[in-house]
Design brief:
This protein is an alpha/beta fold. The chain is built from 4 helices and 6 strands; from the N terminus they run E-H-E-H-E-H-E-H-E-E. It is globular.
Length: 154
């Protein structure tokens, strides 16, 4: 089972924290990442997002490329910037199919550390906007497969 941790694309500044949409650059960046993932054959059973506009828009763009069923789901608890990582970790432990999760910093960096090091407080990675971290569940935990950022995708 693979878990794809995604930080939403670049978002507009100002306005309500829940309503901020992606910028034109954010849409472009996520579109490039989506095309790269589709070309690489990445497929997931579900795409889950935090419920905030920028995360939902990112999830919809990615879902069109990696989720043939088009399942985009909202998960307001467990994906917010300051949420504890145990909610998502427990949910992912019960998933059998590959899932893509779209959320925010600092949560995504802490979630990667939780999965890969067992400690969400380890400063393992900074997740830039539009980035994807692919983790794979192994017999004893999780392993990093790869990470991709928009600046390296043409």
């Amino acid at each position: 089972m693979r878990l794809y941790l995604v930080r939403h694309g670049k978002a507009e500044q100002g306005g309500g924290e829940w309503e901020r949409p992606l910028t034109a650059r954010g849409i472009r960046d996520v579109g490039r990442i989506a095309a790269c993932l589709e070309k690489a054959g990445c497929r997931v059973a579900r795409v889950v997002h935090s419920g905030r506009t920028r995360a939902r828009q990112t999830a919809e763009l990615l879902s069109a490329a990696v989720n043939p069923q088009g399942r985009v789901e909202e998960m307001r608890i467990g994906l917010q910037p300051d949420d504890a990582t145990d909610v998502l970790a427990k949910a992912a432990a019960g998933w059998d199919d590959d899932v893509m999760v779209v959320g925010h910093q600092p949560f995504m960096g802490r979630m990667a550390a939780h999965l890969l090091c067992g400690d969400s407080g380890v400063p393992l990675v900074t997740v830039k906007t539009g980035s994807v971290i692919c983790c794979e569940r192994t017999g004893g935990g999780w392993a990093l497969c790869w990470m991709i950022v928009p600046s390296i995708v043409v």
